[in-house]
Amino acid sequence: MLDIADDLNRWVVQGRAFAVATVVGISGSAPRQLGAALAVDAEGTAIGSVSGGCVEGAVYELCRQANEDGRPVRERFDHDDEDAFAVGLSCGGRIDVLITPIRPPGSRAQAHRAPGPADPSTVVHAALAAAARGESIALARVIDGPPSLVGRALLARPDGACEGTLGGRPELDRAVAAEAAVLWEAGRTATVDLGEDGSRCATALRILVETTGPAPRMIVFGAVDFASALVRIGKFLGYHVTVCDARPVFATRERFPEADEIVVDWPHRYLDATRTDARTVLCVLTHDAKFDIPLLERALRLPVAYVGAMGSRRTHQERDARLRAVGLTDRERAALRSPIGLDLGAHTPEETALSIAAEIVAGRRGGSGVPLRGGQRPIHHSGPHHPPSGEAHFGALA
Asked: Is 389 exposed, middle or buried (0-12, 13-18, 19+ CB in 10 A)?
């Protein structure tokens, strides 16, 4: 539900009751990912989506019912082979949806509940407010297990601070907070199987962990024409985009009005000083050895999501030899995406930016980069770290 946190937080501030349906399980060609949500308030206003249209009507009615009776419900939707236009996923996949009623702060419904953390509303309110402020958080909810625990919620922060509890056992809360920190660093949402004592040996509970935080970074090195197009598509994909170039005449706001940051500095020096994480993508468009080599010598040793460098195949061979000479191992050099991008036959800066973006998305989501026509794997599949079955959950995170 954190994908619609801004809207939901406004509802909380306005004192609205609502029910939120969250995708908590997927298999096959599911149209939305874990954590996608549809919310319906007491007046029938809806925001968000769980299926891109396939089952929205049925989920909407379940949310209306949850608003009336105050009871959570879990429902599975999959493809109906006899009637693809019945309530089901015409794309052929399967989703599990948890519908949870959320009461406004201080409501009579909350006051009349039995004491304890079973009502997740208070924790959800705090999570939505934090997400709306752009803070880095994880919201964990029990989605499968003993009825007394299903629906309980925990708000975890990267520093280990928590609000709420998943069942009153501190070992479980600490274990989930640790798992959440790993997922947050990767910018991912997933399910985690744990025992009630937080151990991985038992799997009595399945917990959905949604993460949110600052936008992932795209750093574009080289203020060239291709960079301008890449900045625009990077923003479209949701990245916080920085352009870095040592030449002040090129690194200007006039040339890159859509960029979040424009930095005039030597690329390798800026990379040494700035923050990166496992979601960061680094695109080297400088095409000049005096910039490229010291930059890539550092970039290829960082735990980032993507490092790509522009240049011809001959340039790549010369660059690879230089990187070997400065001490990069075969494994480190193999991580470089060069020549940068997928083979789309691109010529213009915009087409080239599209090919780079396609390679970034394929790496992030586990795509092959080949045409969908004639393929056999699900169209909407899980990322490269998910199990081959398409079930987006972890038994353990290493």
From this structure: exposed
